[in-house]
Amino acid sequence: MSFNKFRKNKIIKFFTNIFVLILIPFLIWMFFFDENSYLVHRKFNNEITDLESTISYYQKKIIEDKATIKNLKDSLQLERFAREKYFMKKENEDIYLIEFDTLEK
Question: How far apart (Å, rounded) are the C-alpha atoms in residues 48 and 53?
Fold first, then answer.
């Protein structure tokens, strides 16, 4: 009698249903072990997010570089850029670099 009572329990009846017995292993397989599993999709979504942030960074850099190129078409700006970035100088001219110690003691 107790075994029949056990079998008639709603939870046991649900989990012994053939469809549930097939569905549970299928879901476990699809979520964790398949090559298109949830874990793989989550990893790919994180990569996509990282790549999108990289794309936006490089797009901003392209805009900045285009502005710099536009400014360098002027000969005075080109000379200023060469002097500041590459420490170029005219003949018979000395350049002194002054570095400040910003560490407080």
Answer: 9
CA 38/CA 49 separation, integer angstroms: 16
For residues 30 and 39, the answer to whether their CB atoms sit within 8 Å is no
Tell me the pLDDT tens digit for each residue of 40-83. Answer: 889 999 999 999 999 999 999 999 999 988 988 888 888 888 88
Sequence ranges of the domains in the chain: 1-34, 36-88
Q: What is the DSSP letter of 91?
A: T
| Cα atoms found within 13 Å of the Cα of residue 29, Cβ hemisphere only | 5
Residues 6+ apart with CB under 8 A from 13: 7
